[in-house]
Every structure is written in structure tokens, then in C-alpha cells.
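=== RUN LOG ===
request id: a7f3
mode: sequence -> structure
chains: 1
length: 79
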Amino acid sequence: MIRPSVLLFALLMSAPALYRYVTDELDLSQVLIRFLIAVPIAAVLLAGLRFVTAGYGRTEEPGTPTTPSPAEPEAGAQS
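=== RESULT ===
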């Protein structure tokens, strides 16, 4: 399933072609081909961005939790 963000990003990437269609410089088929080319490119770019930013914002640290215990007095210290 294609995410809506991918389609929006592909639409933004193909916006110059859409503008050229509005000004009657391109044919509709060329605009659609450019949009279809932009969809997989946008999917790869956004997947890379999600991969890079996946670890940000996590509050849980890996490892096992430990409970602190009272420290024993050192051998050379006098109380």
C-alpha cells in the first residue's frame, strides 16, 4: 500500500510538469508519466528518511535495569 505522504511528495516533485500542462506546454500523458516516475523515487526517499529518523525520540534504553545497593565502606576509610 502506498502511503499518502509518498503520493503528496510525488505530486510536489512533478508540480513543474503540472504547471507546464496548465500553460499548455506539455501533453497530459507526459505529465502522468512524470508523476508515475516520481512515485517510486518519492517512496525510496521517504523510506530512507524514515529509516534514518526511526531511532529518534525513543526514551527506552536497551539493557537490563539494575537497582542500586548501599555502598560498602572502603578498607582504608575510618568511620
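=== NOTES ===
DSSP finds three helices and no strands in the chain.
Residues 47 and 53 are 10 Å apart (CA to CA).
=== END ===
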